[in-house]
User: Fold this.
Amino acid sequence: MKMLKNAMLQAIVILAAALVLGFTFNALSRNRINPFKNPAKVPVAVSSSQAAVEGIKIITLEEARQAVESGVPVIDARRKAEYDEGHIPKAMLLDYYDMGTYKDRVLAHLSDDQTIMVYCSEVSCEDSELLANELYSLGFTKLLVFKGGFAEWSAAGLPVERSAQ
Amino acid sequence: MKMTWLQGAHLAGGRPGGVGWIYNPFLLLVFRLVLAAVFIYAAVHKIGRPLAFADEIHTYGVVDYGPPLYVMAIALPWLELLCGLSLVTGVFVRGSALVLLGLNALFLVVIARKTAGFMHIGTPFMKVYFDCGCGFGATFAWKKLLEDALYLILAAVLMAAPLHRFTIRFRRRSS
Assistant:
């Protein structure tokens, strides 16, 4: 019984330390989220029809390809250097970590009733979702997030555009 | 005085009945290092990407988007990392074994639940294949369930084992 009590006390210490470290790291991380502000409170559409998109919808490679072919404006949330090396054709650069530089220029090309597709590097990057949330808060309510990102797009052999150096 | 099996294991230096060999200090150390490697690797993969990890947890359909999910996405990787480090260093081994026991029991339940969902739509059990969000990529569900059951057993053994040669003990100083 004493053994179990000791184990529980130790477990509580570990749990408390994990909470402190987790929240501290989150506060300092560039991918930080505010857990109490509900960063993904935006409704996520379940229909595969683009016309029905209201909120933020995670899309597959095939849906991304269809969106690009049908002329949906595309936003690249990566760094300029990555964008210059290659991006989805006609994608506009809007570096999530340098919004001030690009925001006005990009938003001037968009209207808030348009469906917009956002992507970043690969499936594990979060910048496309963070940027989509940001755009949602600016009034753009039809957003597609291509989670596979540029890695999946280029690996599938789909067209890639490079910036003139 | 009659003793339970567990108490007996401790007082007899870890030799209860025929399974005393499992409390061999070197074997316990191996168990600790195996669990530590798994959980440290899994934690490192998740730390710093809370939003993506929250999405992965959400796919289990157990917790909806909201503060509890995000707190979990922020703290769970650190909990795994601390448990792993604790097993490597030998500090608070029982506490971290208890946490890992709970976590693995939870993982088993949610993975079994998700697997049942696939089977419900007609996928045979042996062919259910998905990314559990554990940090090791997509795998067959039966394999993941077996792995988690093994980790659960290792954590249970470490929890019940006597404090052995490679652990750090904290004792209250008596005046």
